[in-house]
Structures are given as C-alpha cells and as structure tokens.
Amino acid sequence: MRKLYIGNKNYSSWSMRPWVLMKQAGIDFEEVMVRFDEFTEGSTFKNTMGAVSPTALVPLLVDGDIKVWDTLSIVEYLAERLPEKKLWPEDVKQRAHARSICAEMHGGFRALRGACAMNVEADLAVQGAIIWRDNAGVRADVERIVAMWSELLAANAGSHPDGMLFGRFTAADAYYAPVVMRFAGYALPVPEPISAYMQRVQALPGVKAWIDAALLEHDFVVMDEPYRVAR
Ligand SMILES: N[C@@H](CCC(=O)N[C@@H](CS)C(=O)NCC(=O)O)C(=O)O
C-alpha cells in the first residue's frame, strides 16, 4: 500500500495537494501524519521525516521501495504509474497548460505564500484586509491567479459538470486547492466566477474530507500563527 507522509491538515498546504489528488481520484493510500513543531534540528518532526526523506519535508510518497519527495514529483509519479486515473487533462495542449500552471504555483506566488500561510480553521478576514491594503506583492499574485483561473473557467465552461479549471477535476485543481483555502480564509477580494469556483472546489469530496479533518485538529503551532495567541 502506498504511504503518504503529510503534516497537519490545518497548516500544510504542500501536503494538501497530493492528499486531495489521491482522495479525489480514488487512489488508495495509507496516511502518515507527522505533526508540525518548531522544525528545529532534532525536533520530533525533523527526526521523524529526516529518517525517511532526504529533505525531511512533507509530503513524501513511499511506494514499496520507491520514495518520491516534492509535490510536483509525486503528482508526476502518480500520473505515470496510474494513467487510467487521468490526473492530467487528456488533450496535449491542455496538459501542457495544466503542467505550466502547476509549475508556476510550485515555484512562484511567493508574496501570497509568505503573507497568507494556509490555516483552514481560522477566520483571517481582518488580517486579509490589512494584507490586501499594504502588500502590493500579494495583490499582484492574486491578480495573476484570478486571470489564470478566469481564462480557464471561461474556456472550459460547460465541458464537464465538475466545473473545474479544465472541466473535470485534474491535478491542476488539487495544486490550487490550498490557494482556494487562502483566498477564503483571508477573505481576499475576488470576482464572482472565482468565488463560485472556490465553492465548487471546497465541495469536492476529497477537499471536504481534508477540511473536515483539519477542523478536528487541535494543535496550535505558534510559528504558523503569528497573528493570534490561541486556536
Ligand atoms: N517543494 C517542497 C516543499 C515542501 C515543504 O516546504 N513542506 C513543508 C510543510 S507544508 C515542510 O515540510 N516544512 C518543514 C520544514 O520547513 O522543516 C514540495 O513541493 O514538497
């Protein structure tokens, strides 16, 4: 059985991507949750992940004697091993587009990622309003993501009842699911078709299962929540 090492569902945006992808695509796996801590040398998280992964980061996929670390590699590995799951769009042009926006997410949007850490449970609308007012980098990242999603949603509208970026659910939606959580949690201003897409993503069974489990967690990791003193 494949094993997926993840961090706290409330905080770990990188873990959310392969977890949601596998759940939503019906790929069986065993989850190993390694709770976040201060990530200092010798911390429980670092010792646990350091024993199984060369980077000591989550997510990590273990499939027999094969280890795959780094989110994009996990997605590509699963797509290669399980072609019947059609994790990428079938059309070559759309597939190239989907890969490009996932890579864009993987290496970019640093202002958004830095200022708006994922926190599934918290209502961060006040913090979001301040960030929106003061952080031009966040506004630029959101503008680019809104343009990206708007173009795809308009081009693929009506092609599949899922109403996802490429019509049916693909790895691209899993890749942007943590962005949906950030836009929602920080109440960042987005046009109506984008909030409708965000609702659809949050209603996907794989995403809903992640959110429900995140809400049941009780950890409060200070480093991840510099804006409040308790959960
Ligand atoms: N590029 C990596 C990033 C993974 C990553 O940064 N994971 C975070 C959790 S969301 C982590 O493990 N942090 C622990 C640390 O910084 O020591 C990937 O895509 O998997």
Notable characteristics:
231 residues; Glutathione S-transferase Yfyf (Class Pi), Chain A, domain 2; binds glutathione; 4-stranded mixed beta sheet; 10 helices; Glutaredoxin; alpha+beta; 2 domains; 4 strands; single chain
Give a written overview of the molecule.
- This protein is an alpha+beta fold.
- It has two domains: about 5-85 and about 215-225, Glutaredoxin (3-Layer(aba) Sandwich), CATH 3.40.30; about 90-215, Glutathione S-transferase Yfyf (Class Pi), Chain A, domain 2, CATH 1.20.1050.
- Helices cover about 55% and strands about 5% of the residues.
- Bound molecules: glutathione (GSH).
The structural domain count equals: 2
CA radius of gyration is 17 Å
Uncertain segments are none
Q: State the end-to-end distance.
A: 35 Å
Broad CATH class of the largest domain? Mainly Alpha
Task: Could you tell me the CATH topology label of the largest domain.
Answer: Glutathione S-transferase Yfyf (Class Pi), Chain A, domain 2
Largest sheet: 4 strands, mixed
Strand content: 5-15%
Global mean pLDDT: 97
Overall CATH architecture of the largest domain: Up-down Bundle
Number of strands: 4
Strand order of the largest sheet: 2-1-3-4
Q: How would the global form be characterised?
A: globular
| Ligands present | glutathione
Along the chain, the helix and strand elements come as: EHEHEEHHHHHHHH
Helix content: 40-55%
> What structural class do helix, strand and pairing data support?
alpha+beta
